[in-house]
Design goal:
flat, alpha+beta, 3 helices
């Protein structure tokens, strides 16, 4: 399935490009976002924030079920090594939560 770009996607990309030109995103270059899937319990999210010292932010994404729509999701931002460890932790905790 192909991704359909929306006007919001284009506006966001243009704002990001303009912020790069003006230097506003200079501090974000070494940071990565971990998108938290819908349905992850808040207790697991809070544990990830505290254990891995990540910043909570929100992202707007496009979903295409059954039509294209915009929705906000939680993202955890931080250096790559901590984001990767937080993702492993989230997968392990979700497995334990679903099995238990």
């Amino acid at each position: 399935m192909t991704k359909v770009l929306s006007l919001h996607d284009l506006i966001s990309r243009k704002r990001f490009e303009l912020a790069e030109i003006s230097g506003e995103n200079a501090g974000l270059e070494a940071l990565y976002d971990l998108i938290v899937p819908m349905g992850v319990p808040m207790s697991i999210i809070m544990d990830m924030v505290e254990m891995f010292d990540l910043e909570v932010t929100d992202r707007v994404i496009s979903i295409t079920e059954p039509e294209v729509a915009q929705t906000s999701v939680i993202a955890l931002r931080g250096p790559l090594d901590r984001v990767v460890e937080a993702e492993k932790f989230m997968k392990r905790e979700m497995k334990n939560w679903l099995d238990g």
